[in-house]
Amino acid sequence: MTMEPKNVAVVGATGAVGTEMVQTLEQRNFPVKNLRLFASPNSEGKRMSFKGRDYVVEPLGEDSFEGVEIALFSAGSERSKKYGPIAARAGAVVIDNSSAFRMDPGVPLVVPEVNPHTVKNHKGIIANPNCSTIQMVVALYPLHKRARIKRIVVSTYQSVSGAGQKGINELNDQVRALYSFHSVVKKAFPHQIAFNCLPQIDVFAPDGYTNEELKMVNETRKIMEAPEILVSPTAVRVPVFHSHSESVNVEFESDLSPEEAKKIISGAPGCMLVDDPPNSVYPLALDAAGRDEVFVGRIRRDATVKHGLNLWIVSDNIRKGAALNAVQIAEILQ
Amino acid sequence: MTMEPKNVAVVGATGAVGTEMVQTLEQRNFPVKNLRLFASPNSEGKRMSFKGRDYVVEPLGEDSFEGVEIALFSAGSERSKKYGPIAARAGAVVIDNSSAFRMDPGVPLVVPEVNPHTVKNHKGIIANPNCSTIQMVVALYPLHKRARIKRIVVSTYQSVSGAGQKGINELNDQVRALYSFHSVVKKAFPHQIAFNCLPQIDVFAPDGYTNEELKMVNETRKIMEAPEILVSPTAVRVPVFHSHSESVNVEFESDLSPEEAKKIISGAPGCMLVDDPPNSVYPLALDAAGRDEVFVGRIRRDATVKHGLNLWIVSDNIRKGAALNAVQIAEILQ
Question: For this structure, is A131 an active site residue?
Fold first, then answer.
């Protein structure tokens, strides 16, 4: 596949995901003709490096997208809602990491290992799914193809980087404060996250589920093109800097042995089987940090339902859960 | 109820649970005639305070239990297996916090809020359940009485104090090492626990579940006297010092609305409802530390099964999960 160099913009370039997007474009040697970096006014003039050259961060404006062919957005829903359509009208294909367009029936919601064929249906905007959903569907889709998933009960162990650089800073600041007998300051999270677990990510919907949890329900169905799959989620923030872990209980339509599931995961795109419990080998958040793969282990039979498995799924939420997935979508566009 | 003062021994008195046992006896004003504190030889001669008086820690021996009426054991399974029967033969009632006797059909496994009537069946030894099981059954038993539980899928977020003082020290040491650019030392846990999640507590059984997970299956059934209840567990160690959190998905025989479940929990012994999500009010490990109650919140309908609820259950694993529960059993004996 020859890739013609493109004019690429990154919107929200100085954030945790934006920074990773720029690095991922470089690491994967994405053919960039011109790179433009946009961020909020207080990052204006900041310099970022790409392929050995310094780029100056520009403030985002309505005329920012002239000549841009691919625009990677990670600057929050409000900015995506305002500037996404502007970029699309200017001729760019927008790959948007916010939740703004994900459930829009006219917008493809893409995980390249699962539904790459939907990319071609875009009308200027493609949505990048939520981090906790991406790693779950990368691991479960190959199993679903073999044995059809009926129901998923998932509890997450999500790192603070899911809240962006401010989440990383807050855990860091709180730990330092506690270890130097200063008082703990809370801004990014509703309660102290250091040495604590918070069963709240995003705001609550009237049914008692958080938006983060509802994303796992709705996005999973859309990406896997399986509206019949039932998902019962609990999303929890834990004091980990990088990578989300997930305890996933799956009930299938037909029998799938742990051995066969392991074999399928071993050969599945984007997955790496890490599953040797007697030797304490299983996926770990620390090991997944900075890696591209979705790591799957502790695959074992759940004998409490007819065709059940339990799995432990771990991935770097900023990489595969955000930046890498977006760049992979851009690669499909090529 | 008049309580006649008893001769009490604490075996493993210098450990995390043993220390808490001594404090709990004092805080609850348990009628102690004589107190004897036993620990391993390297704690010999150490002094511990009880009701304003200093007690010298003694080495444990076969003749340690003469005149002892209640012996609280928390010194590991091997010591319980050896010295528990010796203490019972010497006339003491042993309340044992290890897993040594829990599944012995002749030994009551007691959570005072659930099955206090089984205490009287003891033949010298009463078992204190595993911490992660205790908090789950305290919260679920009142719901089970109302609507009968069919199946539980539970994922835990367990603090390092569950591994005793060495677990607490290890998280503390690792965080300090990381923040002072020293290398991290692993002893208590198979991998770095600081800023990581470990899907392994205790060793693995051949079916791929850990002993910690199997305890949640078997002990839940025995305590609730409901061998038909299905439990699908995943036990995870998280970088939290105190209190275990649990994400619990329950399928009932008959309908139980979240509203009714909240009302039941509000009035249930040992439980405290903490459930106002729109105001970010739900149980938290940090808030539960040092408290007696089992805190329950995020009670919401799971519409993916016929009669389903999701709950978030948090309790101090060293208190209600170990020391307090043992002292409560001793109070029933009075």
Answer: yes
